[in-house]
Amino acid sequence: MQMKTVYQTTQQMLKKTKNKIGLSLPVIVSGLLLLGSVQTFAQSNYKESSNSFARYTKSGDIKNLESAKKFIDETYKNRRDSNSTRVNVLRAMIYSSIAYADSTRSIKNPSDPIDIAYESLNKVRKRDWENYPSEFNYVKQNLAASHIYKAKKSLEKEDYAGAYESYLKVRDLNIQNYDVTYNLALLAAQTEQYAAATAYYSNLLKRGDAPVEYYLELAEVHKKNGDNQAVLNTLHDARTKFPENKQVLMNLIQLFAQNNEYKAIAPIIDEAIAHEPENIDLNYLAGYANETVGNIEIAKRYYSKVLQLDPNNYEANLALGLIFLNGFLQDSDNVEAQFQAQNLLLKANEIRPYDVNALRSLSLYYERSGDLAQLDRVKLLLNQLSNN
Question: Dihedrals φ, ψ of 30, to 5°?
Fold first, then answer.
């Protein structure tokens, strides 16, 4: 389920990135015309590349992009031009466009166009990029879209490590149009990098507007990492922020049950059962938790609810039978306790004839009630079971 979330978010990010790039094209076109105008030789390779790329940004025709690449490659063969800021700006724009627009790699290149775009991007000094803010943003948007596309393809092959690496590269581009932190959190968890996943989720939660799913997923990361205290802390935080959320409540109850913390379960189990009133396991847990903390009457009510839902439930028959047996053992004149204990314990024995817990309970009942024949029968059966 989590990876489906990554995939869907990737698709949305690709669409969003495409829109962002499209909005920046008019600015880029005007900038390119300015770049082209400073070239004194009208037929120069740089001029031809600039004009072809300007046509591509207007039309989206990949043939113009291929033409721009051919001319910038010729320009780049000259050592002086290969170190020129304006040449590398244009080259980075062309190759980042190829990296994104030509996803099938129909345009032949000596190496991955993403790498070539980075080569030119890194050859322009940071202070020089400040003179080309629109161009710089255009290159980064294209590279980000290319990495997101690669992540999408990796996810289709269930290559989560590859997708994670692609998202790290998007993160390093530091673009504010969208946030990749959530996908990094999911992918770090999927690749068992739990410390990294915890850090990403923690950053998301610090923003204050994180949905409940982030808390639940972080709790699952802590669980996989074996940090039960962190699981509890995260669920408590989620419970404070989303007091009505069913899943947070259920996860808390499950955690308490695993740790035998019935004192913590008893005050909140009613709320859970309100969500699922016919959940047999929840009703039994409510009975057991309340019995453990001494709320006997409440426990009896929940055990009885289990038997309404499932009359042949062994655990509830035995548990409720033991409560009445205890009442009968304490007061031999308690006719109701005697009657209920007998019926419930016999029912439990009927469901599981060779279960020693029911047999031992019946042994106590028959001893107190004075039914020696039945007592001997039960003791004989217990002896046979113990010798096997």
Answer: -65, -35
| ∠ Cα 325 327 331 (to 5°) | 115
pLDDT digits (tens, 9 = 90+) for 212-243: 999 999 999 999 999 999 999 999 999 999 99
Of the candidates 20, 35, 108, 26, the one whose C-alpha atom is nearest the C-alpha of residue 65 is 108
Sign of CA dihedral 265, 270, 276, 279: positive
Q: How many CB atoms lie within 10 A of CB 41?
A: 8
Q: Which residues contact 253 (CB under 8 A, 6 or more apart)?
A: 265, 268, 269, 272, 282, 285
Task: Judge residue 125's burial from the number of C-beta atoms within 10 Å of its C-beta, 0-12 exposed, 13-18 middle, 19 or more buried.
Answer: exposed
Contacts of residue 147, defined as CB under 8 A and 6 or more positions apart, other chains included, come to: 114, 166, 167, 169, 170, 173
* Lookup: tokens for 136: 């710089």
CA nearest 220: which of 209, 238, 234?
234
Q: Which of 50, 21, 52, 48 is nearest to 34 (CA)?
A: 50
What distance in Å separates the CA atoms of residue 90 and residue 35, rounded to the nearest whole number?
9
Instruction: Please identify which residue in the block is written with the tokens 């990554």.
Output: 6
State how far the Cα of 45 lies from the Cα of 377, in Å rounded to an integer. 105
Q: Are 87 and 81 in contact (CB under 8 A)?
A: yes
Residue 56: Cβ-neighbour burial (10 angstroms; 0-12, 13-18, 19+) = buried
How high does pLDDT run on average in the chain?
89
**How far is it, in rounded angstroms, from Cα 168 to Cα 190?**
15
Q: Which residue has the tokens 């923003």?
A: 207
CA–CA gap between residue 62 and residue 53 (Å, rounded)? 10
DSSP conformational letter for 178:
S
pTM, whole model, 2 decimals?
0.81
6 to 160, 167, 188, 269, 376: CA distances (angstroms): 10, 11, 11, 34, 66
Longest pairwise C-alpha distance within the chain: 118
pLDDT tens for each residue of 259-296: 999 999 999 999 999 999 999 999 999 999 999 999 99
* pLDDT surpassing 70 at residue 363: yes
pLDDT tens for each residue of 4-41: 566 566 666 655 555 444 434 444 444 444 444 434 44
Cα distances (angstroms) measured from residue 265 to each of 129, 219, 272, 302: 60, 19, 10, 14
